[in-house]
């Protein structure tokens, strides 16, 4: 397994809460990571 294919998440109380947090992270993190 490589880190490019692995996303480690904390335990969430529900799938909806996980979706909410992931969408927030994606929105706030746009343009923050540049991989080459």
Automatic annotation (TrEMBL):
GO molecular function terms noted in the UniProt entry: ubiquitin protein ligase activity
Segments forming domain HECT: 1-36
Active site annotation, chain numbering: 3 (glycyl thioester intermediate)
BP terms from Gene Ontology: proteasome-mediated ubiquitin-dependent protein catabolic process; protein polyubiquitination
Coiled coil: none
Highest taxon of source: Eukaryota
PROSITE patterns: HECT (PS50237)
Keywords, comma-separated and alphabetical: Transferase, Ubl conjugation pathway
Signal peptide: none
Pfam families found in the cross-reference section: HECT
Keyword Mitochondrion: no
Protein name as catalogued: HECT domain-containing protein
Organism of provenance: Vitis rotundifolia (Muscadine grape)
């Amino acid at each position: 397994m490589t880190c490019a294919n692995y996303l480690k998440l904390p335990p969430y109380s529900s799938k909806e809460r996980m979706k909410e947090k992931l969408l927030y992270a994606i929105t706030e993190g746009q343009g923050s990571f540049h991989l080459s």
